Protein backbone atom coordinates (compact mmCIF):
# COMPACT_ATOMS: atom_id res chain seq x y z
CA UNK A 1 0.00 0.00 0.00
CA UNK A 2 1.47 3.39 -0.99
CA UNK A 3 2.16 6.31 1.33
CA UNK A 4 -0.15 9.28 0.84
CA UNK A 5 1.75 12.51 0.17
CA UNK A 6 0.61 16.06 -0.53
CA UNK A 7 1.71 18.43 -3.28
CA UNK A 8 4.86 19.40 -1.37
CA UNK A 9 5.82 15.78 -0.74
CA UNK A 10 4.94 15.88 2.95
CA UNK A 11 2.65 13.16 4.36
CA UNK A 12 -1.04 14.09 4.54
CA UNK A 13 -2.64 14.05 7.99
CA UNK A 14 -5.70 11.91 7.25
CA UNK A 15 -6.75 12.04 10.91
CA UNK A 16 -7.54 15.73 10.45
CA UNK A 17 -10.14 14.99 7.78
CA UNK A 18 -13.84 14.82 8.56
CA UNK A 19 -16.54 12.88 6.76
CA UNK A 20 -19.30 15.06 5.24
CA UNK A 21 -22.06 12.90 6.71
CA UNK A 22 -25.21 15.03 6.92
CA UNK A 23 -27.99 14.91 9.46
CA UNK A 24 -31.08 13.22 8.03
CA UNK A 25 -33.39 15.85 9.55
CA UNK A 26 -31.34 18.88 8.44
CA UNK A 27 -33.60 21.88 7.63
CA UNK A 28 -31.12 23.11 5.02
CA UNK A 29 -29.48 21.71 1.91
CA UNK A 30 -26.28 19.80 2.68
CA UNK A 31 -23.63 18.30 0.40
CA UNK A 32 -25.15 14.85 0.78
CA UNK A 33 -28.27 16.00 -1.08
CA UNK A 34 -26.14 16.01 -4.23
CA UNK A 35 -24.42 12.68 -3.65
CA UNK A 36 -26.82 10.41 -5.54
CA UNK A 37 -27.66 8.43 -2.40
CA UNK A 38 -30.40 8.28 0.20
CA UNK A 39 -30.55 12.04 0.77
CA UNK A 40 -30.79 12.72 -2.95
CA UNK A 41 -33.65 10.23 -3.23
CA UNK A 42 -35.46 11.81 -0.27
CA UNK A 43 -35.07 15.27 -1.78
CA UNK A 44 -36.62 14.12 -5.05
CA UNK A 45 -39.37 12.05 -3.45
CA UNK A 46 -40.48 14.45 -0.71
CA UNK A 47 -39.75 17.89 -2.19
CA UNK A 48 -39.50 17.90 -5.99
CA UNK A 49 -42.04 15.27 -7.02
CA UNK A 50 -44.90 16.67 -4.89
CA UNK A 51 -44.18 20.10 -6.37
CA UNK A 52 -43.83 18.93 -9.99
CA UNK A 53 -46.54 16.30 -10.16
CA UNK A 54 -46.37 12.91 -11.94
CA UNK A 55 -43.25 12.48 -14.07
CA UNK A 56 -43.25 8.72 -14.66
CA UNK A 57 -40.50 6.27 -13.80
CA UNK A 58 -37.31 8.04 -12.76
CA UNK A 59 -34.24 7.10 -14.80
CA UNK A 60 -31.18 8.60 -16.46
CA UNK A 61 -33.24 10.05 -19.31
CA UNK A 62 -36.94 10.34 -20.05
CA UNK A 63 -38.34 8.63 -23.15
CA UNK A 64 -41.29 10.47 -24.68
CA UNK A 65 -43.32 9.98 -27.85
CA UNK A 66 -43.06 12.86 -30.33
CA UNK A 67 -45.28 12.01 -33.25
CA UNK A 68 -44.06 8.64 -34.50
CA UNK A 69 -40.61 9.06 -32.94
CA UNK A 70 -39.47 7.92 -29.49
CA UNK A 71 -37.22 10.66 -28.11
CA UNK A 72 -34.89 10.37 -25.13
CA UNK A 73 -34.34 13.64 -23.26
CA UNK A 74 -31.88 14.30 -20.44
CA UNK A 75 -30.22 17.19 -18.63
CA UNK A 76 -27.36 17.39 -16.16
CA UNK A 77 -25.17 19.98 -14.45
CA UNK A 78 -21.44 19.72 -13.80
CA UNK A 79 -19.72 21.39 -10.86
CA UNK A 80 -16.56 19.28 -10.57
CA UNK A 81 -13.60 20.76 -8.77
CA UNK A 82 -10.90 21.12 -10.04
CA UNK A 83 -11.85 21.97 -13.63
CA UNK A 84 -9.03 19.81 -14.99
CA UNK A 85 -8.06 16.42 -13.59
CA UNK A 86 -6.05 13.38 -14.74
CA UNK A 87 -7.75 11.95 -17.81
CA UNK A 88 -10.28 14.72 -18.40
CA UNK A 89 -11.91 18.03 -17.55
CA UNK A 90 -15.30 19.52 -16.82
CA UNK A 91 -15.67 20.06 -20.58
CA UNK A 92 -15.52 16.46 -21.79
CA UNK A 93 -17.26 15.32 -18.61
CA UNK A 94 -20.28 17.48 -19.49
CA UNK A 95 -20.58 15.93 -22.94
CA UNK A 96 -19.89 12.33 -21.97
CA UNK A 97 -22.16 12.45 -18.93
CA UNK A 98 -25.22 13.58 -20.90
CA UNK A 99 -24.44 11.31 -23.86
CA UNK A 100 -24.28 8.39 -21.42
CA UNK A 101 -27.55 9.33 -19.74
CA UNK A 102 -29.22 9.12 -23.16
CA UNK A 103 -27.45 5.86 -23.97
CA UNK A 104 -28.77 4.26 -20.77
CA UNK A 105 -32.23 4.42 -22.36
CA UNK A 106 -30.87 2.75 -25.49
CA UNK A 107 -30.94 6.02 -27.43
CA UNK A 108 -28.64 7.24 -30.17
CA UNK A 109 -27.59 10.72 -28.94
CA UNK A 110 -27.98 13.46 -31.56
CA UNK A 111 -28.08 16.99 -30.12
CA UNK A 112 -26.82 18.79 -27.03
CA UNK A 113 -27.34 22.20 -25.51
CA UNK A 114 -24.72 23.71 -23.25
CA UNK A 115 -24.97 26.53 -20.71
CA UNK A 116 -22.09 28.10 -18.79
CA UNK A 117 -22.29 29.79 -15.38
CA UNK A 118 -19.04 31.72 -14.99
CA UNK A 119 -17.57 33.36 -11.92
CA UNK A 120 -16.26 36.88 -12.37
CA UNK A 121 -12.47 36.76 -12.42
CA UNK A 122 -12.16 33.33 -14.06
CA UNK A 123 -9.19 33.26 -16.44
CA UNK A 124 -10.30 33.30 -20.08
CA UNK A 125 -7.47 30.87 -20.82
CA UNK A 126 -9.07 28.31 -18.49
CA UNK A 127 -12.51 28.91 -20.00
CA UNK A 128 -11.00 28.43 -23.44
CA UNK A 129 -9.52 25.07 -22.41
CA UNK A 130 -12.90 23.97 -21.09
CA UNK A 131 -14.67 25.04 -24.29
CA UNK A 132 -12.08 23.28 -26.48
CA UNK A 133 -12.41 20.07 -24.48
CA UNK A 134 -16.21 20.24 -24.65
CA UNK A 135 -16.20 20.77 -28.42
CA UNK A 136 -13.68 17.99 -28.99
CA UNK A 137 -15.71 15.57 -26.87
CA UNK A 138 -18.89 16.39 -28.81
CA UNK A 139 -17.13 15.75 -32.12
CA UNK A 140 -15.68 12.48 -30.83
CA UNK A 141 -19.14 11.35 -29.68
CA UNK A 142 -20.77 12.35 -32.96
CA UNK A 143 -23.24 14.77 -31.40
CA UNK A 144 -23.96 18.38 -32.36
CA UNK A 145 -23.96 21.34 -29.99
CA UNK A 146 -26.96 23.31 -31.27
CA UNK A 147 -27.85 25.89 -28.59
CA UNK A 148 -26.60 27.32 -25.32
CA UNK A 149 -26.40 30.17 -22.83
CA UNK A 150 -23.88 32.06 -20.70
CA UNK A 151 -24.34 33.74 -17.32
CA UNK A 152 -21.78 35.45 -15.07
CA UNK A 153 -22.03 35.65 -11.25
CA UNK A 154 -20.14 37.94 -8.86
CA UNK A 155 -16.68 36.94 -7.69
CA UNK A 156 -16.97 34.70 -4.66
CA UNK A 157 -20.42 33.43 -5.67
CA UNK A 158 -19.31 30.60 -7.94
CA UNK A 159 -16.35 28.32 -8.43
CA UNK A 160 -14.87 29.27 -11.79
CA UNK A 161 -17.02 27.39 -14.29
CA UNK A 162 -20.24 25.40 -13.95
CA UNK A 163 -21.68 23.69 -17.03
CA UNK A 164 -25.18 22.44 -17.80
CA UNK A 165 -25.88 20.21 -20.78
CA UNK A 166 -29.15 18.81 -22.08
CA UNK A 167 -29.41 16.17 -24.77
CA UNK A 168 -31.82 14.63 -27.25
CA UNK A 169 -31.59 11.22 -28.87
CA UNK A 170 -33.71 8.68 -30.70
CA UNK A 171 -34.76 5.31 -29.27
CA UNK A 172 -35.15 2.49 -31.76
CA UNK A 173 -38.29 0.36 -32.13
CA UNK A 174 -38.68 -2.43 -29.60
CA UNK A 175 -36.10 -1.01 -27.20
CA UNK A 176 -37.43 -0.90 -23.62
CA UNK A 177 -34.62 -0.28 -21.14
CA UNK A 178 -35.54 0.90 -17.65
CA UNK A 179 -34.87 -0.04 -14.02
CA UNK A 180 -38.32 -1.53 -13.50
CA UNK A 181 -37.62 -4.35 -15.98
CA UNK A 182 -35.12 -6.21 -13.78
CA UNK A 183 -36.39 -9.75 -13.13
CA UNK A 184 -35.26 -12.58 -10.81
CA UNK A 185 -32.68 -14.70 -12.60
CA UNK A 186 -31.28 -11.81 -14.65
CA UNK A 187 -27.52 -11.48 -14.85
CA UNK A 188 -25.73 -8.29 -13.70
CA UNK A 189 -22.76 -7.12 -15.79
CA UNK A 190 -20.34 -4.20 -15.58
CA UNK A 191 -18.41 -2.87 -18.56
CA UNK A 192 -15.04 -2.47 -16.82
CA UNK A 193 -13.11 -1.72 -13.67
CA UNK A 194 -14.59 0.72 -11.18
CA UNK A 195 -13.61 3.76 -9.16
CA UNK A 196 -11.09 5.48 -11.44
CA UNK A 197 -12.92 8.78 -11.88
CA UNK A 198 -13.58 9.49 -8.22
CA UNK A 199 -10.02 8.64 -7.17
CA UNK A 200 -8.52 10.67 -10.03
CA UNK A 201 -10.48 13.79 -9.05
CA UNK A 202 -9.75 13.35 -5.35
CA UNK A 203 -6.03 12.86 -5.89
CA UNK A 204 -5.81 15.99 -8.03
CA UNK A 205 -7.95 18.10 -5.69
CA UNK A 206 -6.14 17.20 -2.50
CA UNK A 207 -2.66 16.85 -4.02
CA UNK A 208 -2.45 13.19 -2.99
CA UNK A 209 0.03 10.76 -4.49
CA UNK A 210 -0.63 7.02 -4.41
CA UNK A 211 2.53 5.87 -6.14
CA UNK A 212 0.66 5.14 -9.39
CA UNK A 213 -1.21 7.73 -11.44
CA UNK A 214 -4.97 7.16 -11.60
CA UNK A 215 -6.81 8.67 -14.57
CA UNK A 216 -10.53 9.26 -14.97
CA UNK A 217 -12.43 6.75 -17.09
CA UNK A 218 -14.64 9.45 -18.68
CA UNK A 219 -15.87 8.24 -22.09
CA UNK A 220 -19.02 8.16 -24.25
CA UNK A 221 -20.79 4.79 -24.05
CA UNK A 222 -23.48 4.97 -26.75
CA UNK A 223 -21.34 2.98 -29.20
CA UNK A 224 -20.98 0.18 -26.66
CA UNK A 225 -24.72 0.21 -25.99
CA UNK A 226 -25.49 0.08 -29.71
CA UNK A 227 -23.22 -2.96 -30.09
CA UNK A 228 -24.99 -4.68 -27.19
CA UNK A 229 -28.41 -4.02 -28.73
CA UNK A 230 -27.23 -5.20 -32.15
CA UNK A 231 -26.87 -8.70 -30.69
CA UNK A 232 -30.66 -8.88 -30.52
CA UNK A 233 -30.52 -9.34 -26.75
CA UNK A 234 -33.44 -8.10 -24.66
CA UNK A 235 -31.42 -5.75 -22.46
CA UNK A 236 -33.60 -5.02 -19.43
CA UNK A 237 -31.66 -2.31 -17.57
CA UNK A 238 -28.69 -0.02 -18.18
CA UNK A 239 -27.25 2.44 -15.66
CA UNK A 240 -24.04 4.47 -15.54
CA UNK A 241 -22.71 4.32 -11.97
CA UNK A 242 -21.73 7.96 -11.50
CA UNK A 243 -22.61 9.66 -8.17
CA UNK A 244 -22.85 7.03 -5.46
CA UNK A 245 -21.03 4.53 -7.67
CA UNK A 246 -22.04 0.92 -8.22
CA UNK A 247 -23.86 0.75 -4.88
CA UNK A 248 -26.26 3.59 -5.72
CA UNK A 249 -27.05 2.23 -9.20
CA UNK A 250 -27.78 -1.30 -7.95
CA UNK A 251 -29.94 -0.03 -5.08
CA UNK A 252 -31.97 2.15 -7.45
CA UNK A 253 -32.57 -0.85 -9.71
CA UNK A 254 -33.51 -3.13 -6.81
CA UNK A 255 -35.89 -0.58 -5.29
CA UNK A 256 -37.59 0.36 -8.55
CA UNK A 257 -38.10 -3.25 -9.70
CA UNK A 258 -38.90 -4.63 -6.24
CA UNK A 259 -36.21 -7.31 -6.53
CA UNK A 260 -33.06 -8.27 -4.68
CA UNK A 261 -29.58 -8.17 -6.18
CA UNK A 262 -26.70 -10.38 -5.12
CA UNK A 263 -23.14 -9.62 -6.21
CA UNK A 264 -19.87 -11.46 -5.61
CA UNK A 265 -17.22 -9.08 -4.27
CA UNK A 266 -14.24 -10.81 -5.86
CA UNK A 267 -15.92 -10.67 -9.29
CA UNK A 268 -16.31 -6.87 -9.19
CA UNK A 269 -13.29 -5.47 -11.10
CA UNK A 270 -11.48 -2.84 -9.02
CA UNK A 271 -7.99 -1.84 -10.23
CA UNK A 272 -5.23 -2.30 -7.61
CA UNK A 273 -4.36 1.41 -7.54
CA UNK A 274 -8.01 2.29 -6.78
CA UNK A 275 -8.25 -0.45 -4.15
CA UNK A 276 -5.06 0.84 -2.49
CA UNK A 277 -6.26 4.45 -2.53
CA UNK A 278 -9.64 3.47 -1.07
CA UNK A 279 -7.97 1.39 1.65
CA UNK A 280 -5.74 4.31 2.64
CA UNK A 281 -8.62 6.80 2.70
CA UNK A 282 -11.22 4.51 4.27
CA UNK A 283 -13.46 4.48 1.19
CA UNK A 284 -15.49 1.62 -0.28
CA UNK A 285 -14.82 1.39 -4.06
CA UNK A 286 -18.44 0.30 -4.58
CA UNK A 287 -19.46 3.88 -3.72
CA UNK A 288 -16.83 5.72 -5.78
CA UNK A 289 -18.02 7.50 -8.94
CA UNK A 290 -17.34 6.37 -12.50
CA UNK A 291 -17.84 8.33 -15.73
CA UNK A 292 -17.11 5.75 -18.42
CA UNK A 293 -18.67 2.54 -17.12
CA UNK A 294 -22.13 0.99 -17.27
CA UNK A 295 -24.12 -1.61 -15.37
CA UNK A 296 -26.28 -3.93 -17.48
CA UNK A 297 -29.04 -6.30 -16.39
CA UNK A 298 -29.86 -8.95 -19.00
CA UNK A 299 -31.77 -12.24 -19.14
CA UNK A 300 -29.56 -15.30 -18.52
CA UNK A 301 -30.15 -16.56 -22.05
CA UNK A 302 -28.54 -13.39 -23.45
CA UNK A 303 -25.73 -12.94 -20.94
CA UNK A 304 -22.91 -14.76 -22.75
CA UNK A 305 -23.35 -13.06 -26.11
CA UNK A 306 -23.78 -9.62 -24.56
CA UNK A 307 -20.65 -10.15 -22.47
CA UNK A 308 -18.67 -11.27 -25.52
CA UNK A 309 -19.70 -8.19 -27.51
CA UNK A 310 -18.89 -5.90 -24.60
CA UNK A 311 -15.41 -7.38 -24.27
CA UNK A 312 -14.85 -6.82 -27.99
CA UNK A 313 -15.55 -3.08 -27.72
CA UNK A 314 -12.89 -0.55 -26.61
CA UNK A 315 -15.12 0.77 -23.82
CA UNK A 316 -16.10 -2.70 -22.58
CA UNK A 317 -12.88 -4.71 -22.79
CA UNK A 318 -12.90 -5.27 -19.02
CA UNK A 319 -16.54 -6.37 -18.82
CA UNK A 320 -17.44 -8.93 -16.17
CA UNK A 321 -20.37 -10.78 -14.63
CA UNK A 322 -20.71 -9.57 -11.04
CA UNK A 323 -23.98 -11.07 -9.82
CA UNK A 324 -27.64 -11.88 -10.33
CA UNK A 325 -31.11 -10.56 -9.63
CA UNK A 326 -33.08 -12.57 -7.07
CA UNK A 327 -36.61 -12.72 -5.68
CA UNK A 328 -35.16 -12.83 -2.17
CA UNK A 329 -34.67 -9.71 0.00
CA UNK A 330 -36.55 -7.35 -2.37
CA UNK A 331 -35.25 -3.78 -2.67
CA UNK A 332 -31.93 -4.83 -1.12
CA UNK A 333 -28.42 -5.36 -2.50
CA UNK A 334 -26.09 -7.86 -0.81
CA UNK A 335 -22.51 -8.82 -1.54
CA UNK A 336 -20.92 -12.22 -0.95
CA UNK A 337 -17.48 -11.72 0.54
CA UNK A 338 -14.33 -13.75 -0.04
CA UNK A 339 -14.93 -15.53 3.27
CA UNK A 340 -18.37 -16.72 2.17
CA UNK A 341 -20.31 -14.30 4.34
CA UNK A 342 -22.69 -11.65 3.02
CA UNK A 343 -22.98 -7.95 3.72
CA UNK A 344 -25.63 -5.41 2.84
CA UNK A 345 -24.57 -2.85 0.23
CA UNK A 346 -26.86 -0.01 1.21
CA UNK A 347 -27.69 3.23 -0.55
CA UNK A 348 -25.11 5.83 0.55
CA UNK A 349 -26.41 8.43 3.00
CA UNK A 350 -23.73 11.10 2.81
CA UNK A 351 -21.29 11.90 0.07
CA UNK A 352 -17.86 10.24 0.16
CA UNK A 353 -16.32 12.47 -2.51
CA UNK A 354 -18.11 15.81 -2.98
CA UNK A 355 -17.98 17.66 -6.29
CA UNK A 356 -16.73 14.81 -8.51
CA UNK A 357 -19.04 15.53 -11.46
Automatic annotation (TrEMBL):
Residues covered by the Peptidase A2 domain: 225-260
CDD domains given in the database record: HypE
SUPFAM superfamilies the record matches: PurM C-terminal domain-like, PurM N-terminal domain-like
Protein name per UniProt: Hydrogenase expression/formation protein HypE
PROSITE patterns: ASP_PROT_RETROV (PS50175)
Top-level taxon of origin: Bacteria
Stored Pfam families: AIRS (PF00586), AIRS_C (PF02769)
Gene3D superfamilies reported in the protein's UniProt record: PurM-like C-terminal domain (3.90.650.10), PurM-like, N-terminal domain (3.30.1330.10)
Listed InterPro entries: HypE, Peptidase_A2_cat, PurM-like_C_dom, PurM-like_C_sf, PurM-like_N, PurM-like_N_sf
This protein's encoding gene: hypE
Annotated family: Belongs to the HypE family.
Amino acid sequence: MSEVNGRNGAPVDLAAWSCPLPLRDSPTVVMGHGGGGALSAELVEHLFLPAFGPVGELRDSAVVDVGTARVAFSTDSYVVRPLFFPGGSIGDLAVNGTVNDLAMSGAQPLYLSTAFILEEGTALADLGRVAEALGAAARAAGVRLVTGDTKVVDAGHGDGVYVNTAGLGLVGPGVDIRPGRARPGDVVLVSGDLGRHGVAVLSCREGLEFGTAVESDTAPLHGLVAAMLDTGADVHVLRDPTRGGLAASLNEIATTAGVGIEIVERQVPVPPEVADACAILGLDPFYVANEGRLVAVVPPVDADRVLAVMRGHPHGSGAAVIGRVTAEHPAMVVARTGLGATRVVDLPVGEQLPRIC
